[in-house]
Design a protein that fits this description.
CATH architecture of the largest domain: 3-Layer(aba) Sandwich
Subunit structure: Homotetramer.
Strand content: 15-25%
Distance between the termini: 64 Å
CATH class of the largest domain: Alpha Beta
Family: Belongs to the aldehyde dehydrogenase family.
Number of helices: 13
GO molecular function: aldehyde dehydrogenase (NAD+) activity
Bound molecules: nicotinamide-adenine-dinucleotide
Helix content: 25-40%
Pfam families: Aldedh
Oligomer: single chain
Structural class: alpha/beta
Radius of gyration: 25 Å
Number of domains: 2
Protein name: aldehyde dehydrogenase (NAD(+))
């Protein structure tokens, strides 16, 4: 296999494991047509736990992107014509490749993104699970036969590949989101072009290396899977590229809307997974210890940098004081620290930019009348550490409508289920939501027509931690896309409604003499 890494030895002993992922202190950031190359700017990837450099990556230039896309377009037809179960076998081998590197790749997720080690390993496991799911799916991409109203006619729906799927991903799930998209896109017969986040390029390269090795071992064209490290310029090239019928975008609502307008202008399709602003409702009959554990996990896990992080806690007045007391006790025990260290529960924020987002957010909270119950400050250490924060504030405050991407939880008091649902639904975003109750009437109201307006509607579990078997995604400003399980695969294919006349007459033309 041609390697994209240049020098070999890392200065820091604790980074030596990266060599086993094919990484080096200096790396080439574009894999296209089976060749590693890169002629764009060089970026340094930073360890969020100490703000020291890990390695450098030379990003793709627009010429690298274009050369890679030519190889991708050449590979397209061959991959579309490969039988789906054979494509599934390739994805199975990718899963095996990931399994072999699970602890190392998981550690890299933790090191470069900043989430704690079990979450890093869990993220790679999710990709592996997606591979398994997609292998089964490769034998089930079935259409349907529909009764025709015309005599001697058959009508059916046939699903065919789109050709090429562009995948643009966010920093907070630098590996799994590619997995959600690529596993399904590949078994559906599409080539994949991936641009990861500019601040997690090592993850992009290490993951690509595992995937590329499978295509090379099977002597398949390298153009079936392309990665191009870069920022807005490469992302924008993907959005504008008419060779790419579907762009799956995961990131902020602001950038997602921009990408959508560009792709729609060229009549392409988008699959959007955008910002969340998720709530947990705790009713007066909830099992409080369960609710407290779930809220802590949902609000502080991944240092509040999940799209499904709980940002709003809506508590019935009868249990409000007890809930808050339990939560404050739990918050005080959370160990904030280096992401790869064993006993850390809350790692750093991803970058200095995230730190200023937190500081600005806290300023706004205070200016808009928020009362900080615990936390609210940055921690004076070399890494991007902040205190897990609980805030009492009016639900009408403007800041509550925004996604503050850190461990900041707003708490509100309500008197009834109706009030709680209205509050849950009152923000622009619509990703995840959960209610804690033991009352069946409450549960079925919550999941019914007048309940939560989100894409994920849970009961007695946190807002995060979705299983891959279900369709994942959200409504409103979250973009409306669905990824992973259920029938999400349909978005990666083109549906043809085919009507076949197997008789000798055309019923519509009866009564006309064509002279034949
Ligand atoms: P972001 O929007 O800043 O960046 C996302 C991606 O878009 C990156 O790869 C970035 O380089 C690229 N990009 C930037 N400008 C672009 C442009 N003009 N054209 C094309 N691409 C461009 O988001 P982020 O800060 O990396 O991630 C955090 C956000 O992602 C949060 O809002 C979070 O809720 C969201 N997110 C959503 C989901 C979901 O499934 N709904 C999952 C993960 C993250």
């Amino acid at each position: 296999m041609r390697v994209g890494a240049m020098a070999v030895k890392f200065e820091r002993e604790d980074y030596q494991f990266l060599t086993e992922l094919g990484l080096a202190p200096e790396n080439l950031g574009c894999y296209g047509g089976g060749v590693w190359r890169a002629n764009g700017p060089t970026v340094t990837t930073i360890n969020p736990s100490d703000n020291e450099p890990i390695a450098t990556v030379r990003e793709a230039s627009l010429e690298d992107y274009e050369d890679s896309m030519k190889a991708c377009a050449d590979a397209r037809r061959m991959w579309m014509l490969t039988p789906a179960p054979k494509r599934g076998e390739i994805v199975r081998q990718i899963g095996d490749g990931l399994r072999a590197k699970l602890p190392l790749l998981g550690k890299l997720v933790s090191l470069e993104m900043g989430k704690i080690l079990p979450e890093g390993i869990g993220e790679v496991q999710e990709f592996i699970d997606m591979c398994d799911y997609a292998v089964g799916l490769s034998r089930q991409l079935s259409g349907s036969i529909i009764p025709s109203e015309r005599p001697n006619h058959a009508m059916m729906e046939v699903w065919n590949p789109l050709g090429i799927v562009g995948v643009i991903t966010a920093f907070n799930f630098p590996c799994a989101v590619l997995g959600w998209n690529a596993c399904i896109a590949l078994v559906c017969g599409n080539c994949v072009v991936w641009k990861g986040a500019p601040t997690t390029p090592l993850l992009t390269l290490a993951t690509t290396r595992i995937i590329a090795e499978v295509f090379e071992r099977n002597k398949l064209p390298g153009g079936i899977f392309t990665c191009a490290c870069g920022g807005a310029e490469i992302g924008s090239a993907i959005a504008h590229d008419a060779r790419i019928p579907l762009v799956s975008f995961t990131g902020s609502t602001k950038v997602g809307m921009l990408v959508q307008s560009i792709v729609h202008a060229r009549h392409g399709k988008v699959l959007l997974e955008l910002s969340g602003n998720n709530a947990i409702i705790v009713m007066d009959d909830a099992v409080l210890p369960l609710a407290i554990r779930a809220v802590l996990f949902a609000a502080v896990g991944t240092a509040g940098q999940r799209c499904t992080t709980c940002r709003r806690l809506i508590v019935h007045e009868k249990v409000y004081d007890d809930m808050l007391e339990g939560l404050l006790k739990a918050y005080k025990q959370v160990k904030v620290g280096n992401s790869v260290e064993g006993d850390t529960l809350c790692g750093p924020l991803h970058s200095k930019l995230s730190m200023s987002g937190f500081t600005e957010g806290i300023k706004k909270i205070k200016a808009q009348g928020g009362n900080i119950l615990t936390g609210g400050s940055t921690i004076n250490r070399a890494g991007n550490f902040v205190e897990p924060t609980l805030v009492e504030i009016s639900h009408d405050a403007e800041v509550v409508r925004e996604e503050l991407f850190g461990p900041v939880l707003y708490v509100f008091k309500i008197k009834s289920l109706e009030e709680a649902i209205e509050m849950n639904n009152s923000v622009p975003q619509g990703l995840s939501s959960s209610i804690f109750t033991r009352n069946p009437e409450t549960i079925f109201t919550w999941i019914g027509p007048t309940g939560s307006d989100c894409g994920i509607v849970n009961v007695n579990i946190p807002t995060n931690g979705a299983e891959i078997g279900g369709a994942f995604g959200g409504e409103k400003a979250t973009g409306g896309g669905r990824e992973a399980g259920s029938d999400s695969w349909k978005q990666y294919m083109h549906r043809a409604t085919c009507t076949i006349n197997y008789g000798k007459d055309l019923p519509l033309a009866q009564g006309i003499n064509f002279g034949g």
